[in-house]
């Protein structure tokens, strides 16, 4: 089977599409709950790391041609998967822009 055809078939897998839809639904359901969304983002980052280290690295192609096809796909279709982190400056800027949303915590727990 052709490598590019394999990759396209896996990318449009109904199982993968369902998981993506479920994640979007979950995030939408909790869109006003920043702590939940932070937990979700941390979980996604953790699973990304786990898949990359424990599964992806060991599944890399054995042949030069297949490796070339993988690198070509990475270049042509969006690059390496990356989970962007919000910069602290952006977070602080957001807090300053919405001073009404800032309330003092009732108790400080370091």
The pLDDT mean sits at 80
- The proportion of residues forming helix, as a percent range, comes to 55-70%
> Main β-sheet: number of strands, strand sense, barrel status?
none
Give me the secondary-structure category: mainly alpha
| Low-confidence runs of at least 5 consecutive residues | none
Dominant shape: elongated
Number of helical segments with 4 or more residues: 5
What order do the SSEs take from the amino end to the carboxyl end, as H and E? HHHHH
Care to give the gist of this entry?
By secondary structure, the chain is an all-alpha fold. The protein has helices at residues 3-11, 14-29, 34-56, 64-76, 88-97. The relative contact order is 0.07.
Furnish the topology, listing elements before pairings.
Blueprint: H1 3-11, H2 14-29, H3 34-56, H4 64-76, H5 88-97
Overview of the molecule:
The protein has 110 residues and is mainly α. It contains 5 helices and no strands. The chain has helices at residues 3-11, 14-29, 34-56, 64-76, 88-97. The protein is elongated and about 60 Å long.
């Amino acid at each position: 089977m052709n490598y590019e055809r394999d990759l396209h078939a896996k990318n449009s897998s109904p199982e993968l599409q369902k998981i993506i839809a479920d994640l979007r639904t979950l995030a939408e359901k909790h869109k006003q709950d920043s702590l939940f969304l932070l937990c979700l983002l941390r979980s996604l980052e953790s699973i990304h790391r786990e898949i990359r280290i424990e599964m992806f690295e060991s599944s890399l192609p054995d042949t030069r041609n297949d490796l070339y096809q993988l690198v070509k796909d990475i270049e042509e279709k969006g690059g390496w998967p990356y989970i962007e982190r919000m910069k602290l400056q952006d977070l602080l800027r957001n807090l300053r822009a919405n001073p009404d949303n800032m309330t003092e915590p009732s108790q400080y727990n370091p």
